[in-house]
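Journal club side-thread
Mid-discussion, someone asked how the predicted structure for our own chain would compare to the paper's figures. Pasting it here so we can look after the session.
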Amino acid sequence: MNYNVSKHLVRVYDVFLCFIIYSFCGWLMETVYMSVYHWHFIKRGFLISPLCGIYGVGTILVVFLLDKLKSRPVLVFLGAIVITTVLELITGLLFHYVLKHELWDYSGDSLNFLGIICLRNTLIWGIMSLIAVYGIHPIVMKKIKVLSLRNKTLISNICFVWISADLSISVFTSFNGINNITWVSGLVLHRLKYIESMTVKVVYYIRH
């Protein structure tokens, strides 16, 4: 494989694996917080999988776009605020007007805009971005760099196929006003009943 092609391919895999890790961490953080706050399990995120893609995309944009500003934390903080707030606004508008799906609502918070963004969360994203840039991301990249290209390829391809299928199902069910987990559960149950029925018929014909 050409050296330059291989180098760019490795970088793509590195970024994609970062996306998976940060999406999972975001899902875990939100799910734990909401579950503890409401005293019962609450699954967060749009996908069936334990991933919140907005965290993955947001963190990647922050750590890579602001990498050259790491020597100036104030600029990193301000840049992160702009990036994450714009991303949250665009995502919120997309889900509200296109997918007709509400993932969050800040209407009860002061200084909010359309219930999609608010000052409190904007500051929180800025602080969390500082933690990601200076604390979490260097550790994550160090662990990812240890993986061989073969392992990165295998993991990335499996995750890509899985997420693509998950996203397709979630978009389809959202457009049809169906809960994605309920839809998949019903599909699996239907298939299991079909398999059970076919098994009974096969056993019957074998015995007779």
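Post-session note: The beta strands are 112-113, 117-118.
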